[in-house]
Structures are given as structure tokens and as C-alpha cells.
Amino acid sequence: MTPIDILIMAAGKGTRMKSRLPKVLQRLAGRPLLHHVLDQAVNLQARSAIVITGHGAIEVEAACAGAAGAKGCFDLKFVRQEPQLGTGHAVLQAVPQLRDDGMAVVLSGDVPLTEADTLRALVAASGGEQLALLTVTLPDPSGYGRILRNAVGAVQAIVEHKDANDAQRAIAEIYSGIMAVPARLLRGWLARLTNDNAQGEYYLTDIVAMAVADGVPVVAHRITDALQVAGVNSPLQLAELERAHQLRQARSLMEQGVRLADPGRFDLRDDARTGARGELLCGQDVEIDVNCVFTGRVELGEGVSIGAHCCIANARIAAGAVIHPYTHIDGEKMGATVGEGALIGPFARLRPGAQLGREVHIGNFVEVKNSTLADGAKANHLAYLGDATVGERVNYGAGSITANYDGANKHRTVIEADVHVGSNCVLVAPVTIGAGGTVGGGSTITKSTAPGALSVARGKQVSIANWARPKK
Ligand code: UD1
Ligand code: CA
After folding, report:
1. Is omega for the bond preceding 32 within 30 degrees of 0, making it cis?
2. How are beta strands 173-182 and 103-108 bridged, if at all?
3. Are 331 and 398 within one domain?
4. Which of 266, 298, 308, 318 has the fewest CB atoms within 10 Å, counting from its CB?
5. Is 35 a catalytic residue?
6. Is the distance from the beta carbon of residue 158 to the nearest atom of ligand 1 less than 6 Å?
7. DSSP secondary-structure letter at 290?
8. 386 alpha carbon to ligand 2 midpoint, in Å?
9. Residue 467 belongs to some domain of the structure
10. 145: Cβ below 6 Å to ligand 1?
């Protein structure tokens, strides 16, 4: 097998994005466009990836360090192209880094949705010796380089839109911007490029005619799916590719049997904070209502139901659990787990380290952080459990909170099995409520309580009989 070296053109400014961020760092499904392209180096088991930077070079180079695949799988190199004198000039900058024994695969940093199989087929078409172009037929080819073929259909050249005559402009087969080319041939052809054309640029596409003149066969690997070669130039195009990508993910889940109420209103994103890939692993009979956003790795067990408008990140939800609408679950790095048959929400919030057992109920406006709730525990209304260990069957009343933070350190609250905490209590940590105990509503508990005890810590009620209210 010929070694593969990937060249990624990423020097362009992306003026139409009207953003401070270099275009290739705009996010698709939670990750920079360029990371999606760098994935191809992993997919193709490339020896190296050379990123050609220009506008925002420092930022772009720094962002590549964070790309998942860049860690050891292939050699990651950068070259700068300043100023930007065209795609041929861009690739020329990478030539000193290219080894002659390899096949160079040219990609653009702003074309994120090319499928790995397409690139494998392109490389296979080149046979390690020939120039292989990825082409696509478009209903509206304007703006693109057209593929010129001779009478027997052999590719002769690419003519850029601005240099093309009317007959050439009528050609619907266009060059995608992606090619596979033997490095040793590329080197020679690039050295001969000129900028004698309508745009005064060094066109990479001019090497096609050079190959033909040199007797090197040029093959076109033609695909029909325009999405795979679509680039991002504007916020609208970015959103269109995002939606197309999401629809692709939604369809693949539905093929596995997941029931999405509307595949057009589904999002699965990579987690930029943790670097976790967007991954939704579903058991049988999972139902997901509209407008849910999944981030990072999320597991949904058999029969799980996710209500509308939920945001769920880095979490494991066991079989039969029901997540009601507007629930926010974010396990961040620690993760969050929901046990079998649990009922969560609506409007619940589970934060990192929330570990809920079987049949746990978490109701509206309840926040759980770094806390374990054993089987059957319930917190149904307006409550906070932070740094708490909650036993089986505990009932945690409306409006109750753990005061886990003393302004400097965090402390744990232990609520043993079968405790009943009334409404509007403050449990000042560190504190333990003994098994089977009861805390009277409105209590502020600062000292641990014995098992089975009733603890009340609030002002005693005073009632004055027949009290006359003041009058004006
Ligand atoms: C190029 C092709 C055209 C093809 C089209 C597909 C050439 C001459 N033309 O068009 O045949 O149909 O792609 O989208 O190659 N870039 C640099 N440095 C430069 C110029 C461009 O890094 O000096 C980068 C851009 O940031 C972009 C990519 O190269 O990522 C393609 O450039 P773009 O201007 O979009 O493509 P065209 O030249 O219009
Ligand atoms: Ca251009």
C-alpha cells in the first residue's frame, strides 16, 4: 500500500462568515470543521496530515492540537501560506514537507461531510500511480471548476468557472476540490503552474491538463451526493450542513429502531469541553420526542423515553426510565446516571456526579449534583441535593436543600434509608440524618440526628387568641 499524506487547505479567510473566528474553526455538531476533516487522516490511516494555514494561523494551529485523532495516530504538520495566491500556491507550500513515495490526498478544511468510504474509493481509483479527482454532478454548477472530457469520456482538464466559455459552463460535472495525486508527480507539476488566468491565481486544477500532457492517466471518481463535497462559506451554509449532518445521524438511529418523533428536530453533538464524541447508544424501544440535544456519550437503556426539549450530556440512563420534558442532564467529565424505571422531570436538573438508583423520582425544579440517591428515593419538588448520600426510599420534601458549601469547603450530607425530610428544610453539612428519622418542615438541621428520631429545629409557634389587627 502506498502511504497516504493528507493536505488540508485551511488558509482562507472566510469573509462571508463575518466572524472573528477563522472559518475552519466554526463548529459543526459541536466540533471545529477542521477536526471533521482531520478525522479523514484517521479514516484513511494516513501517515501524516499537513495543514496549510494563513488567516488566523496561530489559532488554527493551536486548535488542531485538540483534535482527537491528532494524538499519535498520524504525524501532524503545519505550513503557512502568506499571502494566499490560489489553491495551487497553497499546496506548493506543503511540498517541502511531502515525501515522494506517498499519495497526497488534497482536502479543504471547510468541507466537513465527506464520507470515509468515498475517500477510500478515490485513493483506490488512483491506484497509487494516477491522478484521481472526486467529481460530482450538480443541478447548478456555477462557480465551480468544470470537468472537461474528450470524445471517449477521458478527463482532459478542469476549467474554472471564471475562465470557462458558455459551452464549458453548461457542463454539470464539477471538481469537488478533493483529489488524490502521487506526491512525486505533484511536485513537478506545481513547479510549472502559472497565474495566467481570469483570477490571477495559481490554480491547483491546472495540474490536470499537465498530467494528460505527460501521459499520466486522470481518473474521475464521480459521486451523486453533493453534501459530501459541500463547503461552508456563510452562516446559512453552516446551518444547512449542520442540519444535513444531524438528519444523517437521526436516520441512522432510526434504522437501528430508535423512534424519533421528528428526525428533523434531533441533535447529537460532540462535547467541546471534554472532547467526547457525540455518541448515542440506544437499547430497544427507545423513544425520543422533539427538540432534544444530546452531547458527548449518552446511553439510553431499553424502553427509555425522553420527553420534548431535553438537553442530555455525558449520561447513562437505564432501562425503563422516563425523562419528562425540559429536563437538563449534564454529567460533564464525571458523568451522571439514572437508574432503571426512574422518573425525572419535567424541569429537572442533574449535574455531574448525580447517581440515581432504581425507581428514583426527581420532580420539577429539583437540582442534583455529586449525590447518590439509592433505590426508591424521591425529591419531587423545588429542592437541592448537593454532595449528599441519600438512602433507599428517602422522601425529600419540597423546597429542602443541603447547605453543602461553607464558603470555603464542601461537605457531605448523609440521609440514611427511610428518612422523611419535610418541606423547606436546610441540612447544614457535614450532617447525618439517622435511618428512619423524620425532619420537621422548616427545620435548619446543624447536628446529626439519631435513627428513628423526629428532629424539629425552628421557632416555636406562638398563637395569640382573638388578636386585633392594627387599623388606619
Ligand atoms: C476550487 C477549485 C474548483 C472547485 C472548487 C470546489 C481551484 C483553482 N478551483 O475553487 O475547481 O470546483 O474548489 O469547491 O482549485 N485556499 C487556500 N489558499 C488559497 C486559496 C484557497 O488555502 O490561496 C483554500 C480555501 O480556504 C478553501 C479551499 O482552498 O478551503 C478552496 O478554495 P476556494 O476559494 O473555496 O475554491 P475555489 O478556488 O473557488
Ligand atoms: Ca477562490
Report:
1. no
2. antiparallel
3. yes
4. 308
5. no
6. yes
7. T
8. 55
9. no
10. yes
